[in-house]
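Hey,
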Amino acid sequence: MSKEKVKKEEKEVETTERVIDNIQNNPEEKNELSEVEILKKIILEEKDKYLRALAESENVRKRYEIETISKKNLGIASFISEILDPLELLDRELRREVEDPTLKNYLIGFKMINDMLFKKMMDNGLLTIDEKDVLFDPLIHEALEKESDLSKKNGTVLEVLSKGYKYKSYLVKPAKVKVNEWEDKEDGKDK
């Protein structure tokens, strides 16, 4: 138990003892209050302490639960990060065109398995980052190239060169993108 909790409990015990002592040592108050009223007062104070302790234990339980889920999700995101590159390489190879019919049949089967793996990961919280024509976000994008297209807004993602992935709130892999970047010039000066 932490020192703060021990001090808090000691203070609560002292408060209850002080109320009892005050009632016992103050005959006027004792005469005014019957023993039943005194006991009711003590019970209310004890009930209040009990409810506070119950609320604190519920808060601790909720914090532990949130922390456990967060650690689990971080572990899963880390695992996905480890297997993502090999899965993407496999996916790229499976999408190649081949002439041999026997090899083509094998590749179709492997592609189905690969697609099932990605679908299961997506069903369990994996999100792809592959939108273009959105504003560049350094938290989820990595700019590899830039191009100047005056017809589009400055800082817009023109092309996704490699998909990015998020698992729940964790960035697993940033999307590698080509960004629109151009300068406004007026009278030879940058705006």
